[in-house]
Amino acid sequence: MATVADVLSIKGNKVVCAMPEMSVREAAKIMHQNHIGSVIVTENERVVGVFTERDVLNRVVAADKDPSKTLVRDVMTSPVACGTPDTSLGECRTVMTRNRIRHLPIVEHGRLVGIISSGDLMAREVREQQATIHYLHEYIHGRV
Fold first, then answer.
1. Please, what's the b/e burial string for 43-82 (b: 16 or more CB within 10 A of its CB; e: otherwise)?
2. pLDDT in tens, 125-139
3. Euclidean distance between CA atoms 118 and 87, whole angstroms
4. What Cα–Cα distance (Å) separates residue 15 from each residue in 22, 63, 66, 105, 114?
5. Which of 27, 34, 55, 112 has its Cβ near the most Cβ atoms within 10 Å?
6. DSSP 8-state symbol, 76
């Protein structure tokens, strides 16, 4: 059974993070510069929250808060569902679906070591299905 470690071995371990004491404006700039919709909020490599575009919209803009004066810690989503390198991809899919999230931080011994997305899971499923189709085609029609 495929695990998170299998995905991270291909994808890598880069995670864009923010600190809880940053202003919302600073965190939004980081997301903009990296073309992403969320950042993992960490303290000493430990996940303490996630800050998303939805948090900006619902907890800052709609609440008439000043993004320069509002701290990430005050508007981030916490606690955060996390996985480990040994977590199966099926378990990840279940957690992501149940919690209606698209990104799952991966921790090992309490420290952030990567992140996987619903897109990562979908891409792996597509590759596996394409391989199955290829093998079935060869089985039915013979090797070309």
1. eeeebbbbbbeebbeebbeeeeeebeebebbebbeeebeb
2. 888 778 788 888 888
3. 14
4. 17, 29, 27, 9, 6
5. 27
6. S
Q: Which long-range contacts (CB under 8 A, 24 or more apart) does 27-33 make?
A: 27/51, 27/72, 28/56, 28/67
CA atoms of 54 and 37, how far apart (whole Å):
9
Domain that holds residue 128: 4-141
Coil vs helix vs strand at 60: helix
Query: In 10 A of CB 7, how many CB atoms?
Result: 22
DSSP of 77-110? B-S---B-TTSBHHHHHHHHHHHT-SEEEEEETT
| 112/7 Cα distance (integer angstroms) | 15
| pLDDT digits 0-9 by tens, 31-62 | 999 999 999 999 988 999 999 999 999 999 99
CATH assignment of the domain containing 69: 3.10.580.10
Band of residue 144 on the pLDDT scale cut at 50, 70, 90 = low
User: Could you give the CA distance from residue 44 to residue 48 in angstroms, rounded to a whole number?
Assistant: 10
Task: State how many domains the chain has.
Answer: 1
